[in-house]
Design brief:
The protein is of the alpha/beta class. An 8-stranded parallel β-sheet has the order 1-2-3-4-5-6-7-8. α9 crosses α10. The chain starts with a strand and ends with a helix. The model has no long low-confidence stretch (mean pLDDT about 95).
């Protein structure tokens, strides 16, 4: 099994990071840790180098943060990303967030910054890992204009079934489902209708724990796999095999 999106570089794990990673090693094949800005990206790279062969980095700029960045900060993040293009498995998380951000001007800035990362993914032919909350349809319409992005991942997909069906028309587009499946009826209804050939699994740790009082961690991706198997009325091994194969193909691991 593979957790394709988490943040175990966050300070939430400062007291027991090694233990968290060891628990993940006991259950999972690979964990992908996603950066959310320049300093975060560098920290993710250093952490992944410590656990080479198990932790893999992706570099991004979270949209809620990127909307407030200066031109200089964005250039620095772009340069750092391109300088490390051969050291990462994807660009992300990047995108747009219409759940937290309602202001039209800020949404437009998010979109403009998102486009700069899409262009890098397209130019360097690197997978694109997108945070596009409450704007999945808009994001899909944007990325469809780019032909050289090898794989597009809708991180923690929460869009409509109609958008999901459009995504499934592309064999290099994936929707990632998290441990939210354990408690979110909306996500359970979605996964019932979605082909495993377009599915990845994740935790988004430390977020999206099964209970609000607890911290999530990569080993819990097992719970998402079990829930997918239950809802799709298939066995866990089948879900594990297909979603792991998908992730290995997308991230070349």
């Amino acid at each position: 099994m593979i957790d394709t999106h988490c943040h175990i570089d966050f300070e939430d794990y400062d007291k027991d990071r090694d233990e968290v990673i060891n628990r993940a090693k006991n259950k999972l094949d690979v964990v992908i840790n996603s950066g959310i800005g320049y300093e975060s990206n560098q920290g993710v790279l250093e952490l992944c180098n410590q656990y080479e062969g198990f932790l893999y980095p992706s570099f991004g700029y979270h949209p809620v943060s990127s909307q407030n960045c200066s031109d200089e900060e964005l250039k620095q993040t772009h340069k750092h990303l391109i300088d490390n293009i051969n050291n990462i498995v994807a660009i992300g998380e990047v995108g747009m967030d219409y759940f937290y951000v309602k202001d039209k001007a800020l949404r437009e800035k998010q979109r403009e910054i998102f486009l700069t990362f899409i262009e890098i993914a397209n130019d360097y032919k690197v997978p694109l890992l997108m945070h596009v909350r409450d704007c999945e349809k808009k994001a899909l319409n944007i990325v469809l204009d780019y032909d050289d992005i090898p794989y597009v991942i809708f991180h923690c997909f929460s869009g409509s079934l109609k958008t999901a069906k459009r995504i499934m028309e592309h064999d290099n587009y994936y929707m990632s489902f998290s441990t939210m499946l354990c408690y979110s009826k909306a996500h359970q209804d979605l996964i019932r209708e979605i082909s495993l050939d377009n599915v990845l699994t994740e935790t988004d740790s430390p977020y999206l724990a099964i209970t609000k009082e607890t911290r999530n961690e990569p080993a819990n991706v097992v719970n998402a796999v079990k829930k997918i198997a239950e809802i799709q009325n298939t066995d866990i091994n089948t879900v594990d095999e297909i979603t792991t194969r998908n992730a290995c193909e997308v991230f070349k691991i």
